[in-house]
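Incident review: delayed structure delivery

Summary: a single-chain prediction request sat in the queue longer than the usual turnaround. Root cause was a stuck worker, restarted by the on-call engineer. No data loss occurred. The affected request and its eventual output are reproduced below so the record is complete for anyone auditing the incident later.

Affected input:
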Amino acid sequence: MTSLVAALSLNPVTDLEQMTEYPFMVNALWAGTIVAVMAGAIGWFMVLRRQTFAGHTLAVTAFPGAAAATFVGLPLAVGYFGACGLGALLLAAVGRDGGSDAADESAAIGTLQAFGLGLGYLFVVLYGGQLSSLEALLFGSFLGITEGQVQALLWIAAAALAVLVVIGRPLLFASVDGAVARAANVPTRALGFGFLVLLALAVAATAEITGALLVFALLVTPAATAQRLTARPGPGIVISVALALAVTWVGLTIAFFSPYPVGFWVTSLSFGVYVAVRLGELIVRRAAVAVPGAHADPEPT
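Output delivered after worker restart:
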C-alpha cells in the first residue's frame, strides 16, 4: 500500500470509493461494524461490573487459542472462540459468587493469564520458531477477513446481543448491587456465568479485528469513556457503541492508506478520545470551582 499522504485525496467520496473497490476492505468494514456494536454494548456492562481484568484474561487466552489453531491447520476463528469459551468456564469457576474472595479470584485470573501467554508462545515455537501470522494474532489485520467470517460474526453478534437484551435488566441490578439482588432472589451466579460467556464471544470476535493484545481498544475504552460522560445505562450504552463504531471506521480507513496495522490506529484513537474526555472533565471541574468565587455576593459592610 502507498503512504497515507500519497494515497489520500481531498475528496472523501473518492477515498471511500477507492477503499470499497477491494472486497477485503468491504468485508473489514462490515466485520468492524458488527464487532464494534457488540463490543460497545457488552463492554459497557464489563466496565460497570469491574471485570476488565477478566476481559483482559480472556483476551490473553485468545492468543494461545489462535496460535494452536494455526499450528494444527484450523481456522483462526475456531481457536479464538474455543479458547475464549474455555477461559470463560475457568473464570466462572473462580468467580466470587462461587465462594472465592477478591484476592483469590485475582490470583487465579493472573495465573490463568501467565499460563495462557506461555502456552501461546509454545505453539509458536512448535509451529517452526516463527509464526508468519504472529503479528496479526497479536495486533490485528483486516487483510484476511472473508465474507464467510462476516456472516459468522453477524450471527454471533445477533445472538449475543439478543441474550444481552433479555438479561440486561437483572444483570444491571446484579452489577450495581449484588447483595441486594441476591436478597431479591435474582440468580446472580447464573447471570455472572452467562455474562462471562457473552464477554468471551465479544473478546473472540474483537480479537479477529484488533488482535489478541489490543482487544481493550474496542471492549474497554469506548465503554469507559461513555461512563465518564453519563451514568445512565441507556444513553451510556448508545455512546459506547457510537464511539466503538467511530474509532473502528476511522481506524480502518487510516490503516488502509498507511503501512501501520489497524490495531494501532484503533487503539490510538480510542485512547485519544478517552484522554480528551478526561481533560474536558478536568477543565469543567476547575471552571466550576472558579466561577462561584468570581460571582460570589459581596459581604455586607
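Verification: The chain has one domain: 4-290.
Action items: add queue-age alerting; document worker restart procedure.
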